[in-house]
Amino acid sequence: MISNLLNQDKLHDLASRLQDARHIVITCHVSPDGDALGSSLGLMHVLKRMGKNVHVVTPDNPPRQLQFLPGIKSLVVATRSPEVARSHFERADLVFCLDFNAMKRLDEMACMLESSRAVRILVDHHLGLEIDADIVFSHPESSSTSALVFRMLYQLGWLDKMTLQSAECIYTGMMTDTGNFSYNSNDPDLYEIVAELVRLGVDKDRLYTLVFNTSSESRLRLCSYALYDKMRIIPEINCALIALSLDELKRFNYRKGDTESLVNVPLSIPEVSFSVFMRQDEPEYVKVSTRSKGTFSVSRLCETYFGGGGHRNAAGGEFHGSLDEAVEYFMSHVGDYPAFNEE
Ligand code: 5GP
Ligand code: MN
pTM value? Predict the structure, then answer.
């Protein structure tokens, strides 16, 4: 039995607002990952079956590895088609905000959501909610937004509306945000949900292969190079740091998504409690991605130093400046990092 997420009042409110809605936009965070896209597309398929006019609008392009997700071709990408994205927001009477907690996670697209007068429903699992919405499901204890969307649909009694396409999207989101059920994955409900999804026909082995075991040659070489040549261990603070420059990314024919999950690998060293990956996306812009084990809070670290956030064990942020400056900035605060251990 999957436990309830919503109380009766919220459930009725949600059901009636969904009934009234005709034009629905579903949106998620910039650089959408498996959970952001999985929850959005999974919900889209169900709402379409309910006869709604639904569009998933993302701030920017999805990564190559997720091109297999059913429905991904129908995405409206704001950087590619800003006018189309804007018109969907203007027309919408209901907007779902999935897998993000702050307007800045929408990048340039934030103004489209801000100016929309649609009913807003937020479903998210990040720490530190900063967005107003008419209905809020903010559950940082949940390992993924996709699991929250499933539970919402389940409680609405709409499981019979869930197609295999929807189930594949939801499963992909749950799998990616738990590293194939290897962290944040001790909640027994997760496996009740997985059982339902597999009953709907999900081939979980196939989805695992597509997401975690499919690489281009250049991606494998880039990640190998990063670990062999670029990984730096800072033993005083039990940290691993990898920084890749624009030139290095070019050399290995970098494509969006190629460094996904690289930041996890150094955590396999028992002495490493947190891992930091810096990628120079532009000459003066560095994307920072962090992971930790146990009680070390990388979300606090990213909030404090990189204008970001996320979860205790997985968080991100950014640095405005060159890659060398980012590394120097990080190293100049080495003495502060033990404070992020929340033991
Ligand atoms: P990743 O390292 O996989 O990009 O992100 C890890 C987690 O941190 C995800 O839950 C993601 O949503 C969050 N995150 C990544 N970058 C940022 C950021 O710049 N700001 C905030 N607030 N969260 C981020
Ligand atoms: Mn997520």
Answer: 0.95
